[in-house]
Amino acid sequence: MNETTETNRESWSFAGIWNRSLEVRDERPLKKRDVIWASEIGGAYIDRYLKMNAIVPSNPFDPRSLRKFEAGRIFEWIVEMVLVRAGLLISKQDWIPYQYPNLLQVNGKLDHLAGGTPDYEKSREILEKTTLPEFIKKAAIAVVDSLAESHPSGLEHIILEIKSVGSLMFHRYDTYRKADNKHELQIFHYLKGVDMPEGHIIYISKDDLCLTEIGVFKDTERLENAYRGDIEAMTYYIQNKEMPPKEPEITFDEITGRFSSNWKIAYSSYLTQIYGFKNQAEFDEKNKPLVARWNRVVGRYASNKDLTKNNLSAIEDMKKVFPDMDKLLEIAKSVKGMEVEEEHE
């Protein structure tokens, strides 16, 4: 008789139930639309064009991606609980539309509208008795105590957008104090829609729960131009039934002075249909080694290191993709803390 393994003796699996439950999402039905979602602003035009024309994705979200979405909702809920117990939550998940004359409408749901004049003493008493996890309770009480001291007459209303990210991206936002352009434009839309001057993007590190907060302001000309320009372009493509151009596979980040594989392609729901890659792994296999090599060379240039024959050859390759490479090299040199990675060729 075969001996029963320890694994086969398990009567039920909590992990299996948990994982399956987080893979179920209520998806919007796929149908043609002429409304832009606020979360799409700043994204790839070609992907948005296909979605708005109800084209079935060739690369739908896999189970891991769906679980990551739900993890983001958990962090939103944690912030919401702290705001509620502290008496600071005014509203949540409000639909906010905005439309320029003769352009497509934009619509989206803000995360939280917070502020007002809470009863700090009552909020503290509520938090002391709450069933929140102890570490969250302590943080919430600290928030209330600090605000009671600094804003005894209450706080102005501010839109809060919550984004949970990995430690590498968190480090970028925290170090350079520059939010992701897509996130800026999303909260900028809400500011336009409700006619408020200020909103904050709260980035939460999923690895260690550190938070950083970056302000976004409605009177920022750069954001106004980018927001309207995005809507104008998308309106043109939709109304003229014209397919937008493909995204470049490699991009240059002027904030960090580094190249990166284009996330707009890597996470595209149409990765196979548009670009011919089977999956993200195949896209990364092609582009990440090249990006790493280019960043090593740019790092050496930025640190005034002597350039090898291979370095110079790599720069010529970069110029074939980026005709303004000389300008980008100078941008990289101006970035503080640009690290040099030694060549291993």
Question: Characteristics of this structure?
Answer:
345 residues; alpha+beta; Lambda Exonuclease, Chain A; 3-stranded mixed β-sheet; 13 helices; 16% strand; globular
Structural write-up:
The protein is α+β, with helices and mostly antiparallel strands. The protein is built from 13 helices and ten strands. It has a five-stranded mixed sheet. A three-stranded mixed sheet has the order 1-4-3, with helices on one face. A hairpin with a 4-residue loop joins β9 and β10. The N and C termini lie far apart (57 Å).
**Strand-residue fraction?**
15-25%
Question: How many structural domains does the protein architecture include?
Answer: 2
Output the strand order for the largest sheet: 2-5-6-7-8
The percentage helix is 40-55%
CATH topology of the largest domain: the name is Lambda Exonuclease, Chain A
How many strands, what sense, and barrel or not for the largest sheet? 5 strands, mixed
| Termini Cα gap | 57 Å
Structural class: alpha+beta
Radius of gyration: 24 Å
How many helical stretches?
13
How much is the average pLDDT?
A: 89
Query: Which shape, going by the Cα principal axes?
Result: globular
- Provide the CATH top-level class of the largest domain: Alpha Beta
CATH architecture label name of the largest domain = Alpha-Beta Complex
Which stretches of 5+ consecutive residues score pLDDT under 50? 340-345
How many strand units?
A: 10
H-E order? HEHHEEEEHHEHHEEHEEHHHHH
